From TrEMBL:
Source organism: Nonomuraea maritima
Sample GO molecular function, one term: phosphorelay sensor kinase activity
Origin superkingdom: Bacteria
Catalytic activity: ATP + protein L-histidine = ADP + protein N-phospho-L-histidine
SMART domains: HAMP, HATPase_c, HisKA
Entries under InterPro entries matching the protein: HAMP_dom, HATPase_C_sf, HATPase_dom, His_kinase_dom, HisK_dim/P_dom, HisK_dim/P_sf, Sensor_kinase/Photoreceptor, Sig_transdc_His_kin-like_C
Ranges for domain HAMP: 89-141
Protein name per UniProt: histidine kinase
Record GO cellular component, one term: plasma membrane
Subcellular compartments: Cell membrane
Amino acid sequence: MSIHPLPPPKEPTGLGRLPVARWFLAIGTLAGVTFAAGFAVIMTILGDAVALSQRTDVDAQIARLNTALLLVFGLLLACGLGLVFVVRFAVLKPIDQLTEQVRAVAGGDFDRDLHVDRPAELAELSSHIDSMRRRVVSAWRVASDQAEELRRSNSELEQFAYVASHDLQEPLRKVASFTQMLEQRYGEQLDDRARQYIHYAVDGAKRMQLLINDLLDFSRVGRVNGGRSPMDAGAALDRALDNLSAALEDADAVVTRDELPRVDGNASQLTQLFQNLVENAVKFRSAEPPRIHIGVRRDGDMWEFSCSDNGIGVNQKYADRIFLIFQRLHARDVYPGTGIGLALCRKIVEYHGGRLWLDGDADGHGTTFRWLLPAAGDGR
Ligand SMILES: Nc1ncnc2c1ncn2[C@@H]1O[C@H](COP(=O)(O)OP(=O)(O)OP(=O)(O)O)[C@@H](O)[C@H]1O
Ligand SMILES: [Mg+2]
């Protein structure tokens, strides 16, 4: 997990474009020029007044006024210089420091402390910004640790599902085959009830084999043959239809399609995806022969695919349940299957960074599934 650097700051507009330092410089220069001009004018007037006066006491008064004015001007000059110093070192420099620190944090150095000592207002502002930084960073670290933990436990679970289902196959095969051998060899000595029990046992073992194989397929998504590359979605659909050709022919099904684009995908997984969806459309058909359409439209960086049929439909209240592993809406003797197909499809689509859902608008008029896959990035 990473925090992306912040986007560049928004440009100020109007008079705000001029930095405060420039404002101070401009106003300071104006004040300095006014001050110098005022000083020169007053000195000239005083000089003229001395030249005009004939009386010594007036001269003395003017000399005192002269000294007082010089003192006042000197004091004003000192205050002005003091103000420049204060603004320069007590305001502008700390702002520069803070800006530099904030820029470093925004650039990715999240452990950098934000701190300036003065003036008091900026010190308070910097301490608030710093506590905000610390809270954001610690929340981010917690989220990042949790994501890592989740990834680890997910991959452990997948590993577990794989190992468990793989290792369960062998003993199960033994149970099924020895029970069948029992029937073959001792069949004549058994009564009907015993034969029926054996039949149940074999049937149960076979069903468990199917479930285990489905679990294995499920746990393999993204682990085995998981690479993705630009590929033609139409070719994946062709392969899926080829695999289903007998079932499609039996049901008198017609599959139509839009022109399918290139996607960034895994060929064997996308074939599995199309195969499961079209197989469902055929299996859950109504009295009519199945009419299935594979559509596509562009959605930003993704392609939105759809698979619509004219079958028995799915009630919207089961829109989430049907995607859960081994969850089915019908008895096995009415529609065969283990209930892994849609869970597998969802896992495949999510592995591709997309989303698969039941389209709510199709309620009662067949079924439409929609899913997003990333566009190949090399055009159609
Ligand atoms: N096209 C569809 N029309 C009507 N119902 C559907 C359709 N697709 C799925 N369903 C419903 O969703 C449930 C789950 O589908 P899913 O493909 O996961 O399992 P399945 O087809 O029953 O078994 P499997 O795919 O393992 O052979 C189905 O049992 C069915 O009730
Ligand atoms: Mg299915």
